[in-house]
Amino acid sequence: RRRCGAPRRLAPLSKMSAAEQIDVGIVGGGLSGLVAARKLFASGLAAGSVVVFEQQETLGGRIRRETVDVDLASGESVRVPLEVGCPSFHARQDKLVALARELHLDLVETSEDQGRIVVDVGERVRECSAKAFHAGLDRAEALDLRRAAADIEALCEVVEQGAPQLSPKAEYLDSISAAEWMRQRLRTEYVKTLVEAAVQAAFATTSATISMLHFVTLIQAHGGLEELLHYGRTHPEQQIAGGMSEIIRGLAAEVAEVGGDKAIRFGHSVTRIELLKSEGSASQDVTHISLAEGLARKAGVSGRGVAIFGKDGRGQAFQVVAKYVIIAASPTRVERQMTFTPAVSANRQELMRRCFTGFVHVAIVLYETAFWAERGLSGGVLSDCAHGPVSSVRSQVCETGEQKLHALVCYMNAEHGRASSMLDSSRRRRLVLEQLQKWFGEKALDAVGYVDMSRDSYGGAGYVGLFPTGVLAEHGHARSRPNMHGRLHWAGTEASDVSQGLLDGAIHAAEAAARRVALVLEGSSIAHSAPRGWKKKDWKLERPNEGTGTEKTRLRIVGLAGVLIGLLLSLYAASILYVEVTKAMRFKSMNIGDEEFLVASQQCGSGDVYAEIAQREAL
Ligand SMILES: Cc1cc2nc3c(=O)[nH]c(=O)nc-3n(C[C@H](O)[C@H](O)[C@H](O)COP(=O)(O)OP(=O)(O)OC[C@H]3O[C@@H](n4cnc5c(N)ncnc54)[C@H](O)[C@@H]3O)c2cc1C
């Protein structure tokens, strides 16, 4: 396994090809990377100054569309676009809704809230609507569920989503897993199984693997335990008309329009980021200098910045010199694929090393009709996987020309997903169809199409990066804090202060990173608005003109003046200290008590107390 801080590679200058020079390099062409690029162009950066590097041949990351061939019962064959990544979203994700509007995309409500969902947990199959989720629960279970929701809500109030490590209970909450908390708080077996099933459906891992502190922030992002469990929903589930990938298409079109056709580089995998040395390095030995410095010289870069190294789709190495870099990829991917010179902070390394994703294997089953709606069902399922690998199901409508197909998207998560992914695909298909038959009846077997997506389809990113116990309280502050002297910024949903793990989080983190970079590129002074929990030195970024001769002289004069003032102040403080110490020593040598001193000082008024006492002692 490669480490984050690899030793600096040396290469002869003559072998380096001239590097392209840009203002900002963005690693990752998912929602976050594209939003960051759009924001930077909107701030006034010119075409050619911002480049998005995406390692896949398609954009979108965890938002992904696949086109599959389906043979209909009529004998006709159709090509169907399927959203195989994130299929829909909760309308309370304001940033996403606003972005969709800006891109002139329509929003449509999914059928998920328009019928009952099937809850197959604890050997009981219940069909409940969002409004009557408690249907089928006995009194003790209903009470237990309400109490759990209230307890989590109370925790959500004391834990700050953007800086959970600062909460008064941070250390304790980070020392126990979500499972441990549930063991302590939940009383009925049914509710324990229900909440565990919801956790596995939402995060693709067991509650035993997630720190309670992180769990609270994830619940905050979802808007409460009720929202996670699909009940008490205050906002409907929505999707973009034409599929979630339309938002990626819209963003990519805008970025390419403003930034030119080279603004997005497909199949470009970034493997290394190296901080450039300042102009001072020009005096070094020119036969063996670091690759980054060599590139900077070849590109004629005199200021500071970073060199971005990687491989393109044909396996050819590429290098680009940028003033700033924004990494908009999941921490697990970064840790596995990228190295940094100098190494990123120890806290950031630890955060990336211990971040993990759950396991998700998706199977999409296509039907010509939404037959489940005839029974008043939405197509949604939550299951504890007692009788099969499917943890949850969501319905989706796929339109292709005149043809409208209905899909049941089956998520096989955590251990059950892992076990089923080892099976032969025809056996897995049989298991999935058997479960659908149990929930939706015989018609579930009349599928017209079946698509099997492995976890690697999302680049191993799962749904979201998660943290086990003992990470967030200690290293959480490094989540979005820049590295490499402010040259390296973090975006991606995992770096977000709000809605972490969700689409809104990806947008939020991208906007924050792009805003910071745009500000320093403009040369604005932003040193006074450091976000909560950040050290000022991380926030006080270098300005682009830093490193020029005039700026350096100015800095030296200011520094010298500071040192002189400091010296004078310490001299003054030392003289006061000297006087006080001598007085105290005289006082001590006279060996008088507090009371005697008080009497003497009252008698002599503002005169010299010591002289007065000495005079008395002499008498
Ligand atoms: C099945 C599924 C269902 C989901 N359901 C929901 C939902 O209902 N609601 C919701 O809000 N969210 C949901 N999500 C989560 C949501 O999709 C993500 O939060 C969001 O898409 C993350 O976007 P991102 O840009 O931060 O990261 P990503 O989408 O992971 O994008 C990162 C990109 O960086 C690229 N990359 C990584 N490393 C490199 C490298 N070294 N060089 C170049 N490129 C690199 C990757 O290929 C990828 O394209 C779901 C996710 C999945 C997978």
TrEMBL record:
Top-rank taxon, per record: Eukaryota
Transmembrane segments: 557-579
Provenance organism: Pinguiococcus pyrenoidosus
The protein's name in its UniProt record: Amine oxidase
Pfam family, one: Amino_oxidase
Transferase in keyword set: no
Binding positions for substrate per the UniProt entry: Y411
Reaction equation(s) it catalyzes: a secondary aliphatic amine + O2 + H2O = a primary amine + an aldehyde + H2O2
Source lineage: Eukaryota, Sar, Stramenopiles, Ochrophyta, Pinguiophyceae
A GO term, aspect molecular function: monoamine oxidase activity
Cofactors demanded by this protein: FAD
Enzyme class: oxidoreductase
